[in-house]
Design goal:
About 45% of the residues lie in helices and about 20% in strands. With about 400 residues, the protein is α/β, with parallel strands linked by helices. Transcriptional repressor of xylose-utilizing enzymes.
Length: about 400
């Protein structure tokens, strides 16, 4: 037999195996007949592939199809939740979260640690590693964990595993985090921009299922976005694509932590909202937030503002809604430039303040071409505040499954 033919046959078989896993990821559970129909394969071919995947403990039986009124009911198949795990780590400006993630995208054994204010490099790294170690130790699953995925603020270099210069987390400037984690855990580690892993998590397990091209917007303490083209993270060159938060939206706007002026992040992020609320309180604006305000913004954080807005505080609601409109303007530009199939909005602002999404959608539709936005699905995150850790674990699972086809 020609060796190249054999290699091609193995490659096609492995791609079909990955295709079955992707279907079960998207639909939850399917019968062999449903898989065969969706993949345009014979039942016999699917049956052989399913047997292989079950031997590899990647899929498992999940009960019986319940709409068959007569005859033998077909068995349902789903991804195996109990043999392969990854650790997902999400680093934000203020904290680190880590959890064990299974093949079904479920987060277990979550730990969260807070960074001290103005923490130095050593302190930040120690908190990250100790949080990961705690998850590994308490889960008791280290022998079944295939790797660690880290979603961190950009810009960063995922090839070298190095954090470059995140504006809101100076304690990680120029840190080769991948190597440090691998040295301390003895597990292979991947590092990717936080919004990119959130986008991938939504693609696999959230509202991005059934789409090939999407934009994820992380409206949080900072503002970032992740891009998925043809079901793959688009990193750009050099690895920085999606920095929507550092696109200029007001040429006369306030200085951003990145050093520029008028960035979306400087005007509409959680940091900006707190700053602007403080400015209004100093001018004597009426608000329930006065009791927490110490005169220099240190007594407030964005969750205080969100809580006040939900309770009817007019100042808080106005600041949050205005922030949403600026994000909506930026997304109108994204729609006109990229025309993705869907835009998913997550982060603390969208996750905890429902009107934020409403105003983002309204503004982005009003300011983009109708022939584009009429076909684009703008939706909130399904994974919510778990998007970071689930997405970070997903980059490990994606690599593991892709290696099956090599």
């Amino acid at each position: 037999m020609n060796n190249s033919v054999g290699k091609n046959n193995r490659h096609v078989r492995n791609l079909n195996r990955i295709g079955i896993i992707a279907l079960l990821r998207d639909y939850g559970s399917l019968t062999k007949a449903e898989i065969a129909a969706k993949m345009n394969l014979t039942f016999t071919a699917v049956n052989n592939l399913v047997e292989e995947l079950m031997r590899d403990r990647l899929i498992a039986e999940a009960g019986f199809y319940d709409e068959s009124s007569r005859g033998r009911k077909p068995k349902l198949l789903s991804l195996n939740s109990g043999d392969i795990y990854a650790v997902g780590v999400h680093i934000s400006a203020s904290s680190v979260r880590a959890a064990v993630i299974n093949l079904q995208g479920k987060a277990m054994m979550e730990k969260r640690s807070i960074f001290e204010d103005n923490a130095n490099r050593g302190s930040v790294v120690n908190v990250i590693i100790s949080t990961i170690q705690a998850v590994l130790d308490e889960s008791g699953l280290k022998s079944q964990i295939i790797g660690i995925g880290v979603g961190a603020p950009g810009p960063l270099d995922p090839v070298q595993g190095k954090i470059l210069s995140p504006p809101n987390l100076p304690g990680l400037h120029q840190v080769r985090l991948k190597g440090l984690i691998e040295e301390n855990t003895e597990l292979p580690t991947q590092i990717e921009k936080d919004a990119n892993v959130m986008a991938l998590g939504e693609l696999w397990y959230g509202n991005g299922r059934h789409f090939s091209n999407l934009v994820y917007v992380d409206a949080d303490i900072g503002i970032g976005s992740g891009l998925i083209f043809n079901q793959k993270i688009y990193q750009g060159y050099p690895f920085g694509a999606g920095e929507i938060g550092h696109c200029t939206i007001d040429i006369d706007g306030p200085r951003c932590n990145c050093g520029n002026y008028g960035c979306l992040e400087a005007i509409a992020s959680g940091i900006a909202i707190v700053r602007r609320v403080g400015e209004e309180l100093r001018r004597g604006a009426a608000s329930s937030l006065k009791s927490s305000f110490d005169g220099n913004d240190h007594g407030l954080d964005v969750t205080d503002v969100i809580t006040a807005g939900l309770e009817g505080d007019q100042l808080a609601a106005n600041m949050l809604n205005e922030s949403a409109r600026y994000v909506g303007i930026s997304l109108a530009n994204v729609i006109n430039l990229l025309t993705p199939e869907t835009i998913i909005i997550g982060g603390v602002l969208a996750n905890r303040y429902p009107d934020f999404f409403k105003y983002v959608k309204e503004t982005s539709y009003n300011r983009s071409l109708s022939s584009f936005h009429n076909k684009i699905v703008l939706q909130p995150s399904e994974l919510g505040e778990l998007a970071g850790i689930i997405g970070a674990g997903t980059i490990v699972l994606e690599k593991f499954l892709n290696e099956m086809s090599e």
